[in-house]
Design a protein that fits this description.
The chain is an all-alpha fold. The protein has nine helices and no strands. This is DUF2238 domain-containing protein.
Length: about 220
């Protein structure tokens, strides 16, 4: 468990600065990636979650603002998706570096994507469940967050399957299996590991950020 961090009350100005900084960074990365992606259709499929989530976050930030921690996690997740869409997950350069360093059989960047695919929905589910008072029991809270993350991962695998059925052989770059017959199972395992580590290591930090929101009167 990470040590508790001091609770520092954020001002509305600090909130707006954070929103602008994270939003601008993601938007800039998205624009750069759109200039010359490896394959345009694959790029669109990979960044689609960013294009869907961005307007939802803008719409909800006044009605139900998330913690700064969660906004940071979402922004990092968006950058991972954008980089994967730019090169395709099997061709991301940093993944090749790691592959060479550890003498791996495949580019592991796809697994990083699925790891953080577990982190984001787990923390989001935990925050919503806690703030809406669905449960305050720590073990049940963690279990439900894991269930949501794993369900999201499974649903995403179904989406990949549907895309493969529609696109046929052209979906190979989007699937990113790299010849691994157990790619779906290992993807879901990485998401589960990411979810488990996030709700274990970041729980106290998230709790403090939630308390900060509630004390500022912006939690609802």
């Amino acid at each position: 468990m990470l040590p508790a961090l001091p609770l520092i009350m954020a001002t509305p100005m600090q909130d707006r600065t954070l929103y602008a900084a994270l939003g601008s960074g993601v938007l800039l990365a998205l624009i750069c990636s759109a200039v010359a992606p490896y394959e345009r259709a694959t790029w669109l499929l990979e960044v689609a979650p960013v294009l869907i989530a961005a307007p939802l976050l803008i719409w909800s930030h006044r009605r139900f603002p998330l913690t700064h921690l969660l906004y940071w996690v979402i922004a990092i997740h968006a950058l991972v998706l954008i980089l994967g869409g730019t090169y395709t997950y099997a061709r991301v350069p940093p993944g090749f570096w790691v592959q060479d360093w550890f003498d791996l059989a495949r580019n592991p960047y796809d697994k990083l994507g699925h790891f953080i695919q577990g982190v984001t929905p787990a923390l989001l589910a935990r925050e919503v469940l806690l703030r809406r008072r669905f449960t305050a029991d720590g073990k049940m809270l963690g279990f439900l967050a894991l269930c949501v993350a794993l369900a999201f991962s499974a649903f995403y695998e179904l989406i990949e399957w549907w895309v493969a059925l529609i696109a046929g052989q052209g979906a190979e770059d989007f699937l990113g299996t790299q010849g691994d017959p157990w790619d779906t199972q290992s993807d879901m395992l990485m998401a589960l590991i990411g979810a488990g580590l996030s709700v274990t290591l970041l729980a106290r930090i998230q709790d403090k950020h939630i308390a900060q929101l509630e004390r500022s009167g912006r939690a609802e």
